[in-house]
């Protein structure tokens, strides 16, 4: 293969990857539209800052996550199908093949077991920021929200390292994704 052919193939692959990433972002729901600086200042001035509270103590089970979405598919399997490419599932909706690109670190995985579904706003962060005052139905909706880009298929150990940290404490290692992550 000549250098020219190799360069053309590499360029075509880059365009295909970029189109695939844009397609995946579109499937996840719309990111909030940035507001003007004056509107942002108005919003910020209307916020009452309070200390986070973990009273009563956070309990992940109070968020009832990974509920059945359709047929045998729970929230996790639905996100795996949405965020993956060429995902095949068995009769129980478990992913048997496919590939997943992690926006957090740029890694691609071919085993669903290597992928976690991340809550961009961690459930504990939501709890200490006020979700402790929500009823069970609202917490369940938040934990399984497919209408916003709140749930993402990402590299499992990266998600586990993030834990319950918010954007002030943790950002993805892939700097090209920082703005998208913060907007989401």
From TrEMBL:
This is GmrSD restriction endonucleases C-terminal domain-containing protein. Keywords: Signal. InterPro entries: GmrSD_C. It holds the Pfam family GmrSD_C. The keyword Metal-binding does not apply. Transmembrane segments: none annotated. The keyword Plastid does not apply. PANTHER family: AMP-DEPENDENT SYNTHETASE_LIGASE DOMAIN-CONTAINING PROTEIN-RELATED, SECRETED PROTEIN. It comes from Passalora fulva (Tomato leaf mold). Residues 1-18 form the signal peptide. Residues 104-182 form the GmrSD restriction endonucleases C-terminal domain.
């Amino acid at each position: 293969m000549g250098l020219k052919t190799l360069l053309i193939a590499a360029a075509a692959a880059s365009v295909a990857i970029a189109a695939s990433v844009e397609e995946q972002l579109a499937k996840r729901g719309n990111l909030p539209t940035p507001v003007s600086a004056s509107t942002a200042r108005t919003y910020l001035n209307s916020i009452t800052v309070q200390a986070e509270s973990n009273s009563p103590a956070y309990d992940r089970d109070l968020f009832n996550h990974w509920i059945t979405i359709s047929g045998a598919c729970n929230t996790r399997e639905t996100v795996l199908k949405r965020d993956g490419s060429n995902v095949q599932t068995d009769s129980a909706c478990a992913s048997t093949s496919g590939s997943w690109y992690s926006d957090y670190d740029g890694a691609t995985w071919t085993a669903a077991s290597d992928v976690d579904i991340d809550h961009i706003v961690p459930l504990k962060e939501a709890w200490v920021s006020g979700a402790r005052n929500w009823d069970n139905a609202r917490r369940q909706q938040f934990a399984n929200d497919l209408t916003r880009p709140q749930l993402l298929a990402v590299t499992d150990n990266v998600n586990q390292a993030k834990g319950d940290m918010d954007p002030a404490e943790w950002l993805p290692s892939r700097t090209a994704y920082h703005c998208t992550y913060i907007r989401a």
